[in-house]
Structure formats: structure tokens, C-alpha cells
Amino acid sequence: MNPYTLTLLRHGDIDHDGRLVGRLDLALNERGRRQLAASWQRINALAPVTSIASSPLKRCREFAVQQALAGGVPLKLDERLAECDFGAWDGMALAELAARHPDWSQRLAEGSLDAPGGENFDTFRTRVLAGFAGWMSEARGSHRVLVSHGGVITVLLAELLGTGFNVARLLTVQRGGFAQLSILDGHPAYLLRLEPPCAD
Length: 200
Fold this sequence. Notes:
Blueprint: E1 4-10, H1 30-46, E2 51-54, H2 58-71, E3 75-77, H3 94-100, H4 104-110, H5 121-138, E4 143-148, H6 150-161, H7 165-168, E5 178-183, E6 190-195
Parallel strand pairs: 1-4, 2-3, 2-4
Antiparallel strand pairs: 1-5, 5-6
Helix pairs in contact: 5-6
């Protein structure tokens, strides 16, 4: 199989009011739309996009659909590429969450978080990797772009770069920013660039 470029684009800013977002279906705010538009210009300038996949959550889906239609590029929406389900913690104020569960952010960083009524890390990782593998089996072309979430992108970076989740979290992809990798089946992925949002 020929090598291809994979771009992992994180959705832009949203009005989350200091809450844990998870599966809340929030739209991008104006700043978030500007961030993604600018990043998309940069991504296309590096290499024309040939295939797009996206989380079905609004903050990813609306932009992905817009770009797929504008560019005539195949698009796959897949529930398996959505953010982690934090169950009872979804929508909770981060300050309240920290007060009730002081170790929650450390457990999240370690990949050991198990929120009540939500997904444990192994379930989350398994579904993300299954969704990604499904897309890769269908995707064509030399530049494939996934529009998704911080947790999903970290899982994929850990898998593709052969490192632990806690290490991959150090490669923070900011909202509206992206990571780009060169991939050849049977070989370790190579990180080409890690870029912050292209616009504020």
C-alpha cells in the first residue's frame, strides 16, 4: 500500500461554560468556526484532501459536511469516532467535578478514568480504533482528514506512534489545531507536524 498523510483535526472552540463536554452536542462558536476555516486552508495547502471522516457530534460534523460538499470529497460519519461518554459527569462543571473527585484529571491522563454510567477507557479505546480501522479500509487517496475530539485524537496518536496514552497526551492538539502523520502500512507512523489553531 502506498504511504498516505493522515491529518487529525480537532474541532474548534465551543461555549462550554467551564463544563466537561464529552457527549454534549454543542455547536462551534464564531471563534471555533474561524479556527477551523483557517486550519483547513493550511491543511489543503499542504496537500489536497482526498477523504474525510468525522465524529457525528455537531461541533465536528457541521464543518466536515461543509468541507466535503465544497470539495467533492467522500465523507464518513461514524459514531465510533465520537468523544468519550462520561456518563453522569457529562455537562458537570469542572470545578464541581474536581471538588467531588480530586483525582479525576489524573485518572483521565493515565487512561484509567471510569465515570459512573459512562465508558471505561478500554471500551472507549476499542471503539475508536475499530472506527478508525473501518474508515481506513474504505478511504482512498493520499491525504485523509479526521475531524474529531481531543480524546479520540490522543487514542489514535498513542496507537499510531506506539506509545502510551499518558505520553500521547503530552502531544496536545489544541481546539482548532491539528496533528499530521505520514503512514505506511507495516511501519511506524511518522509525526510530520503538530500545529496550534491557525486563527484566534
